[in-house]
Design a protein that fits this description.
alpha+beta; Alpha-Beta Plaits; 3 helices
């Protein structure tokens, strides 16, 4: 039985591991000043089907979105979500991530 587990374990270690291969979107926003602002923005973006993760950095006024693999969130949608939430969009940066989760 141990041999079966060893063989299976060895086989799984040879399979490629893809941690997160979606797109990362950095949204620079004016008006984010408090924890309430951060939680409100998180709720808005978490409702989007394409968003896998969100991080709001108040000191940098930066919203970092991790999109699901193969999913997209257009700039005009991001702009509308930010503006409708009462904040001013400054810029949007996009980066594809590699298999190891690092931006390329």
């Amino acid at each position: 039985m141990k041999k079966v587990f060893l063989v299976l374990g060895a086989a799984f270690t040879l399979l490629p591991v893809q941690a997160y291969a979606g797109e990362t979107v950095k949204v620079h926003v004016n008006g984010l000043v408090c924890d309430f602002c951060a939680r409100a923005i998180e709720k808005v973006f978490k409702k989007q089907e394409s968003v896998e993760s969100i991080n709001v950095n108040l000191s940098d006024k930066l919203i970092t979105l991790g999109l699901k693999d193969g999913q997209a969130l257009e700039d005009d949608v991001i702009t509308k979500l930010v503006n409708d939430s009462g904040y001013a969009l400054v810029s949007i940066e996009r980066a594809e991530e590699g298999q190891d989760g690092t931006a390329q």
